[in-house]
Amino acid sequence: MKVIAGAGDNAAAAIGTGTIGEGKCNISLGTSGTVFISRERFDVDENNALHSFAHSDGKYHLMGCMLSAASCNKWWLEEILGTNDYEESQKDIKTLGENNVFFMPYLMGERSPHNDANVRSMFIGMSMDTTRSDMTQAVLEGVAFALRDSLEVAKNLGIEIKSSTICGGGAKSELWCKITANVLNMEIVTLEKEEGPAFGAAILASVGCGEYTNLHEAADRLIKPRNIYTPDADTVLRYEAKYRKFKRLYPAVKGLFE
C-alpha cells in the first residue's frame, strides 16, 4: 500500500483546476473565497495581505482568502429572504454595472487583504427605488469586488493575470461568473469536473502511484473546460467605476468597528 502526501483544500483545488505553473490562477467561490496564483518563485507583499506558501507542484503560490464568499449569498437568501431558490433570486437581474447599491462582504470580519477581525458587513446606497433584486445583485458584486482586492495586491507585485478557472458552489451561477469576469476584467473558465479539492487530491494520488509522470501531464489529460465567460468592454468600464467607489468604503467605515 502506498501513502501519498496530499495538500490543503485550496492547494488541492489548484491541482484539480490545473493551476500549475507560472501565473496560473484559480478562484474559489465556496463558503470562503480565494484567489490562488501559482508561482515559480517565492513572493511576499509588504503588508502580508496575501499568503505565500509552497505549492503542491513543488513550486510556490500566492493566495488571497476572504472569509465570506458564497456564504454571503446563502446568508442573504436563506436567513434574510427566507428562500433557498438561488436561481429564482437572480432571474430579474439583467443589467450589470449600473446598480447603485453596494454590499461589503465582511460577515465574519475579513482576512485578505484587510486582516481585520472586527469589520462587519454593510449595505450602502439604498433608496426608495431599491429592489430586492438590487440587493441580491449587490451581494454578488460585493464578493467579486473583494476578490479583486486580492488581485490588485498581486498586480502590485508585477503579476498580470488574464484568465482564471473558477470552482465552488458559487461557480454554478452563470450570472455570478459573468459578474466576476467583468469586475476582474479577465476570462473566467468553469470546468467539466466541479469538485476542485477532491479531484486535486485524486490527481496527486494518481501521480504518486505512477499513473502519470507528473502533475502537468495529469492536468493536461484530465482537466477540461466547460464554459468561458469573457468580459464585455462597456460593462468592464462601468464596473471599474463601481470598484473605485467600493475601495473607498472599508477605509471610511473601519473605525466604526474598532
Summed up, the helix count is 8
Could you give the count of β-strands?
Answer: 9
Mean pLDDT: 94
Oligomer: single chain
Largest sheet: 7 strands, mixed
Structural class given helices, strands, pairing?
alpha+beta
Helix content: 25-40%
- Uncertain parts: none
Strand content: 15-25%
- Rounded to an integer in angstroms, the radius of gyration calculated over CA atoms is 18 Å
Overall form: globular
Q: Can you write the helix and strand succession as a string?
A: HEEEEHHEEHEHEHHEH
Distance between the termini: 53 Å
Enumerate the strands of the largest sheet in spatial order, edge to edge or round the barrel.
3-4-2-1-7-8-9
Description:
- The protein is of the alpha+beta class and 258 residues long.
- 40% of the residues lie in helices and 17% in strands.
- It is built from 8 helices and 9 strands.
- The protein has a 7-stranded mixed β-sheet, with helices on both faces. A two-stranded antiparallel ribbon has the order 5-6.
- Helix 1 crosses helix 6, helix 2 runs antiparallel to helix 4 and helix 4 packs across helix 5.
- The protein starts with 8 loop residues before the first helix and ends in a 5-residue tail after the last helix.
- The mean pLDDT is 94.
Offer a concise description of the structure.
The protein is of the alpha+beta class and 258 residues long. It has helices at 9-16, 70-81, 86-90, 132-156, 174-184, 196-208, 215-222, 233-253, and strands at 25-29, 33-39, 51-54, 60-66, 102-104, 122-124, 163-167, 187-191, 225-229.
